[in-house]
Design a protein that fits this description.
The structure holds two protein chains of two kinds.
Chain A lengths: L2 H8 L3 E5 L3 H13 L3 E5 L23 H12 L4 E5 L5 H8 L4 E4 L4 H14 L5 E4 L12 E6 L2 E5 L13 H20 L2
Parallel strand pairs in A: 1-2, 1-4, 2-3, 4-5, 5-7
Antiparallel strand pairs in A: 6-7
Helix pairs in contact in A: 2-3, 2-6
Chain B lengths: L1 E4 L2 E4 L4 E3 H7 L6 E6 L2 E3 L8 E3 L3 E7 L4
Parallel strand pairs in B: 1-7
Antiparallel strand pairs in B: 1-2, 3-6, 4-5, 4-7
The chains are: A alpha/beta, B mainly beta.
């Protein structure tokens, strides 16, 4: 595939992102830069100052809903991307409807119980749809432990699998950003082939 | 029995085990887990009642907070 063909293929694709925090905002920006045609994302949160240590938002956006700020940031990077954003809490009742049209879904929540809920819901509703989960990225260093694992057909996990957020192990821009970009990179691999 | 656990071959002395028993035997101690048996999600509450037999394909995915 030539670069022009790659861009043409990506422009026809739809990627869903569940959560717009450290993983979701950085993953969405990477996918917008490479020209994925249509992004669907959802989050119910507003931006707090403490989010700026890793999330793709700006100081003057504190207080705004994350989905609103992310839509604007993507528009400034690549206005050709069609953005569909949902300012709501993702739940088993709305997940299937929101992400039904997506070619790939990226799990980008913070809390493990939300990750569990999303994976159970997506794998039950869409067993054929590729789902990319992030798990284990707190702290710093140990870049070599970050991996992409194929758990079963259509289910992948990015991260080190064990580094859980704690008081002495905060989520920080470099490692969270690496995993977000591993997720985006895997999206491309799924959409374009090897 | 021989099963596939997380894409790898795994052998147990027992002829069958529940998913909950396998989680305990393998010492998967993480709080948040997603389990799939032969491609279908098995919800948390059903793990003690779901039996794994020879040739089955079991996925246990553990999830930790952060993102």
């Amino acid at each position: 595939m030539t670069f022009e063909q790659i861009k043409a293929v990506l422009s026809t694709k739809i990627v869903g992102i569940a959560g717009c925090g450290g993983l979701g905002s950085n993953c969405a920006v990477a996918l917008a830069r490479v020209g994925v045609g249509h992004l669907v994302f959802a989050d119910f949160d507003v931006i707090e100052l403490s989010n700026l240590n890793r999330q793709y938002y700006f100081y003057d956006q504190v207080g705004q809903p994350k989905v609103t700020a992310l839509s604007w940031n993507i528009r400034r990077i690549n206005p050709a991307v069609f953005v569909e954003s949902f300012n709501l809490k993702l739940q088993p009742e709305n997940i299937a409807q929101i992400f039904a049209g997506c070619d790939v879904i990226v799990e980008a929540f913070d809390k493990a119980e939300m990750k569990e809920m999303l994976v159970e819901t997506v794998v039950s509703a869409f067993p054929e749809k590729p789902l990319i989960v992030g798990s284990g990225m707190a702290g710093w260093g140990r870049s070599d432990l970050l991996k992409v694992k194929m758990i079963s057909e259509n289910l992948f996990v990015c991260g080190d699998g064990v580094s859980e957020t704690a008081d002495d192990l905060p989520p920080l821009a470099p490692r969270v950003g690496m995993v977000a970009n591993m997720q985006a990179n895997l999206v491309l691999e799924i959409l374009l082939g090897n | 029995m021989k099963i596939t656990l997380n894409n790898n071959p795994e052998t147990f002395a027992e002829n069958e085990l529940t998913i909950a028993e396998i989680i305990q035997k393998k010492n998967f101690t993480f709080k948040m887990l997603v389990t799939k048996l032969n491609g279908k999600v098995v919800l948390k509450d059903d793990r003690t009642a779901t039996t794994v037999k020879d040739g089955d394909d079991l996925t246990v995915l553990h999830l930790v907070s952060g993102g």
